[in-house]
Give the backbone structure.
Amino acid sequence: MKILFLHSSSDLYGASKIILAVNELCLKKGHHCIVVLSEDGPLASKLKALGATVILSDLGILRRQYLNPAGILNRLVANYKAYRLITRLCKTEKIDLIYSNTTGVVVGVFVASKLGIRHIWHVHEIIEKPYLLFRILSGLINTKNNKAIAVSEAVKTHWTKYVAPHKIDVLYNGVDYWLFENTTSDLRQTLNISPTTILIGMMGRVHFWKGQDYFVKIAGELFKQHKNVHFLIVGDVFAGYEYLHENINTLIGENHLQAHVTQLPFRADITNVYNALDIFILPSLLPDPAPLVVTEAMAAGLAVVATAQGGAMEMIENNVSGLLIPINNAAAAAKIIEPLISNEAYRKNMGAQAKSRMQEKFSRTQFNEQIMACIEKQS
């Protein structure tokens, strides 16, 4: 089967890791994979290394920055050009299935509908605003799409306000937990952090809703009670949001944490990062649909903390395999997290429970079986 994948970026964050995993699986199964990306980057390199055909072309990706008259016109023009390209590509390559990864890519569903090609939409988002965009995308999923894959029940529940439930299947992201087995980390040594220091970290794109500011506020509260701690923020900033680094640095100064917070850009060696940590925090301020970083941290056997919303609430059993904290209440969050710092046995037991739950519910093996079944149903 010839499958055309459409994806919104070429980074190696959550949704990009999933499209990489799906391509690896499809190629092993003997399918021909063509991937169109809007930009070059590490994902493109990894896909080429696997044997996928990679084409770089503007897909007219929908982003909040285009929600103005000039931006809307820009996206209409970009999507028209993308529509012509993808239509031509489908006819030339005799594509059997179009697989659009994220709702930021809309051109695929129009081409598929026009040419009578099967279409899968892998939905990684919970879009609450703007409401009009949510309604438009819901209509496309409901009427022009063959199958939608939601990355969590939270995502499915959100979209089935206007989409027929049978149109959406839930498929949790999977992680190769064996990658975290029998591995060591030299990150503490590199950063000159003592082995006895409690290292608390978060990883992800720097964005206002990802909660880096909230992480620093929580760090400030924890540091009042515990001096033997260090905090690590890993991730690049979205283009156009560079000012967020200034906000983070201001908060670090206000909380007197200059010597106790380290910021690093995106790291490909994720096992090196996770294995250096004692505690992982996901402090998202908006519902995170299915945070892959939580699954990865669980695979690493870390005590995992996340705000009580979105997909994290399905991944973590509160007070068993992780902790759920309130949104934007640093003092209350710190009070919940504090026992993980002061009680090593409690921390390690919670990490072990997290690892066990991840292997049972969120393994790459389960993901591979389910995603392949979904794809082959469309053949």
User: Anything to note?
Assistant: The chain has 15 helices and 13 strands. The radius of gyration is 21 Å. The first strand starts at residue 2 and ends at 7.
